[in-house]
């Protein structure tokens, strides 16, 4: 065919559909199918493709479909208990969304202790850092994006127990309701340690004791994904996967998943627990290699199979070559911690323990930039990347929460 021909198919490669045919094919798809396709894209691709046409942009802002689309983290809420600080939001460089970072919509917000974050909701404790001898302590769940909050019932007088861990479980793609798990670490009369758990069910607004015990403790930031809570074992290099309980049976079932990488050898390392994350709809895990100069990120495929997604060099991130040191007790310790990451945005958050700062590291460019300076490096309690959730609490739950607070 003449290269100068104006025929629409003159420069089209063999086997590719014409633009007219592609347009007809896309227009024949229902909104549900388009949303299903777009929801499987990485965040960066979705942000570009939603500008293709007005209908795609409208679908991305529709409340009915919005929960299926990838969401963009804007920063991380954090608190430094050692300095009795307020709760703050350290924003990522490209974030421009307006969020009440002071949580001023919550009564007595100055006295809130940050306990955790789960898919856009925050778990806080009133009566913690500054009000240690408060007459009453309240567990509070709030949504900074919508400025909604609720106080949970059946809280105990006085400050929180040091042997009790509270974990928030919320995933809007799984349910509009949330759970709060209270893990109580106890010792029997013969010196055996075990864990008991109580669970708050937001759908019926009650706490319930569940028939579950485990003779171990765990640490780190738990992740709730697709109805399963994943938590790190304190000493063993394993994950504890706890299925969300049924409000009727009130039973908890769990299984053990072996983590990839190398275990925390207490005879060599003081701490090397790695970092859990949920990204692109799957559970992921990151850990430094032995010398700290490389980092690996795995994703969980199926129930217990880990696949390497990235192997990243850390040599040019911190401005120094030495990333592994030996402390005065003879234990090895990495110069940095892996704080959180988001594979959809190709972003890793690192804690520099030497220069006392939080660094945003780009997987695509291999460069890091400072987002927060932490004087004398405090422990950032309950912190994770924060992704706004604009869904509302169910009206019936909010009403019962208001009655409880009054």
From TrEMBL:
Gene from which the chain derives: LOC123399056
Domain F-box: start-end pairs: 29-69
Phylogenetic lineage: Eukaryota, Viridiplantae, Streptophyta, Embryophyta, Tracheophyta
Species per Swiss-Prot/TrEMBL record: Hordeum vulgare subsp. vulgare
Superkingdom field: Eukaryota
Protein name stated in the entry: F-box domain-containing protein
Matching InterPro entries: At3g26010-like, Beta-prop_At3g26010-like, F-box-like_dom_sf, F-box_dom
Matches recorded under SMART domains: FBOX
């Amino acid at each position: 065919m003449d290269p100068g021909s104006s025929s629409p198919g003159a420069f089209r490669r063999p086997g590719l559909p014409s633009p007219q045919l592609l347009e007809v094919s896309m227009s024949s798809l229902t909104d549900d199918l388009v949303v299903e396709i777009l929801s499987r894209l990485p965040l960066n691709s979705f942000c570009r493709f939603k500008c293709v046409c007005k209908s795609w942009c409208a679908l991305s802002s529709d409340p009915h479909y919005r929960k299926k689309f990838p969401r963009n983290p804007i920063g991380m809420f954090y608190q430094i208990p050692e300095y009795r600080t307020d709760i703050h939001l350290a924003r990522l460089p490209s974030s421009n969304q307006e969020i009440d970072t002071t949580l001023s919509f919550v009564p007595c917000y100055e006295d809130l202790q940050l306990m955790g974050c789960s898919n856009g909701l925050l778990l806080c404790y009133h009566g913690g850092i500054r009000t240690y001898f408060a007459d009453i302590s309240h567990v509070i769940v709030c949504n900074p994006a919508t400025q909604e909050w609720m106080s949970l019932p059946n809280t105990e007088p006085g400050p929180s127990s040091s042997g009790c861990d509270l974990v928030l479980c919320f995933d809007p793609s799984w349910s509009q309701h949330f759970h709060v798990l209270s893990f109580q670490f106890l010792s029997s009369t013969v010196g055996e340690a075990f864990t008991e758990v109580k669970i708050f069910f937001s759908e019926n607004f009650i706490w319930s004791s569940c028939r579950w015990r485990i003779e171990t403790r765990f640490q780190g930031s738990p992740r709730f994904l697709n109805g399963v809570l994943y938590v790190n074992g304190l000493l063993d290099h394993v994950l504890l996967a706890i299925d969300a309980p049924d409000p009727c049976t009130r039973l908890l079932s769990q299984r053990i998943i072996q983590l990839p990488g190398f275990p925390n050898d207490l005879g060599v390392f003081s701490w090397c627990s790695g970092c859990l994350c949920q990204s692109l709809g799957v559970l992921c895990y990151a850990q430094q290699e032995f010398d700290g100069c490389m980092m690996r990120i795995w994703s969980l495929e199926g129930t217990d199979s880990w696949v390497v997604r990235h192997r990243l060099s850390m040599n040019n991130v911190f401005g120094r070559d030495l990333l592994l040191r030996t402390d005065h007790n003879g234990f090895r310790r990495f110069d940095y911690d892996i704080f959180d990451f988001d594979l959809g945005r190709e972003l890793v958050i690192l804690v520099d323990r030497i220069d006392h700062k939080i660094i945003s590291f780009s997987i695509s460019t291999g460069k890091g930039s400072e987002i927060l300076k932490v004087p004398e490096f405090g422990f950032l309690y309950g912190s994770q990347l924060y992704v706004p959730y604009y869904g509302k609490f169910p009206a019936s739950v909010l009403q019962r929460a208001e009655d409880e607070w009054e």
